[in-house]
């Protein structure tokens, strides 16, 4: 009798443990779609009430899809279990027969976060062609039609060959210079876009001082630093970023913003955001100078 009671208790305990786990699932609201058609992607999470989960925002890379809109719903809690759901409205412009998507859900803890991925959801491409009439219908026309003179294709071909040779010689002589000019313009455009988005994100954070605004600001800064340095900054912790970049003040600045996310601490973060912007600006000028020096040596 004692053994039976023990096994029943163990079974109930295992069920209770399973109920405390985070469960994430996702699916498309339709199994196929045309090119560019608006499709809903549903992301759901079920987790213990005491945990804190965050869904991806507009800064996440939705490749091969384009994000159109994000629609969130109010959390529902019952018997200590919370359910959250978000619908991402996206569109697809790829010609692959099937495209797949899986979005992560982040569980925030005191010093780090845990990422949960649902199974990949499949969206098939729907191609539609206009119907072809069974018998062609010709329009009657007995009006005289003048015949255009033929082109002198030999002359046109010769001119085209000469133009291609000139362009090829020009490219061969100045290819490196042209590439570096385009690279420099790309660096400047990326910096301009970052400055604009950074100003908006910092204003939003100073206004709301919310967890979502802080998370978006950190994601924006890490994404830019990663693009300008070609280092896996997004994969590093704040302390690793400070060590790898040789500036522990970066760590303290990141930490000040992370305290809003992980601890819900409302604090003055202007000094931290100003320093992070200064670091990004230094990386930008360093990248720009390196590219200019490379052009000068060509």
Provide the β-strand percentage band.
15-25%
Based on CA atoms alone, the radius of gyration comes out at 29 Å
Overall average pLDDT: 82
In percent, how helical is the residue content? 40-55%
Sheet with most strands = 5 strands, antiparallel
User: What's the overall geometry?
Assistant: flat
Instruction: Quickly give the structural class.
Output: alpha+beta
Please provide the count of β strands. 11
The rounded distance between the terminal residues' Cα atoms is: 88 Å
Oligomer: single chain
Determine the number of helices (DSSP H or I, runs of at least 4 residues): 6
User: Which series of helices and strands comes N to C?
Assistant: HEEEEEEEEEEEHHHHH
- Which residues sit in consecutive blocks of at least 5 with pLDDT less than 50? 1-19
């Amino acid at each position: 009798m004692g053994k039976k009671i023990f096994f029943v208790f163990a079974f109930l305990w295992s069920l209770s443990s399973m109920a405390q786990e985070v469960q994430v699932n996702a699916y498309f609201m339709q199994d196929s779609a045309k090119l560019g058609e608006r499709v809903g992607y549903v992301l759901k999470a079920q987790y213990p009430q005491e945990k804190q989960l965050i869904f991806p925002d507009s800064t996440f890379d939705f490749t091969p899809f384009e994000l159109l809109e994000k629609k969130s719903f109010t959390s529902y809690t019952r018997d200590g279990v919370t359910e959250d759901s978000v619908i991402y409205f996206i569109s697809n412009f790829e010609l692959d027969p099937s495209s797949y998507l899986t979005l992560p859900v982040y569980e925030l803890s005191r010093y780090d976060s845990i990422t949960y991925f649902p199974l990949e959801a499949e969206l098939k491409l729907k191609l539609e062609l206009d119907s072809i009439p069974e018998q062609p219908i010709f329009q009657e026309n007995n009006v005289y039609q003048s015949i255009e003179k033929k082109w002198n294709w030999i002359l046109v071909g010769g001119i085209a060959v000469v133009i291609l040779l000139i362009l090829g010689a020009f490219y061969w002589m100045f290819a490196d210079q042209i590439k570096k000019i385009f690279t420099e313009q790309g660096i400047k455009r990326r910096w301009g876009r970052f400055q604009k988005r950074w100003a908006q994100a910092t204003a939003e954070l100073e206004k709301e001082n919310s967890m979502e605004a802080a998370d978006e600001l950190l994601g924006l800064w890490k994404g830019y630093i990663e693009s300008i340095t070609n280092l896996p900054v997004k994969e590093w912790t704040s302390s690793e970023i400070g060590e790898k970049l040789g500036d522990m003040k970066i760590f303290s600045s990141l930490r000040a913003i992370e305290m809003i996310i992980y601890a819900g601490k409302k604090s003055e973060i202007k000094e931290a955001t100003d320093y992070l912007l200064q670091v990004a600006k230094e990386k930008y000028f360093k990248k720009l100078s390196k590219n200019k020096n490379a052009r000068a040596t060509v």
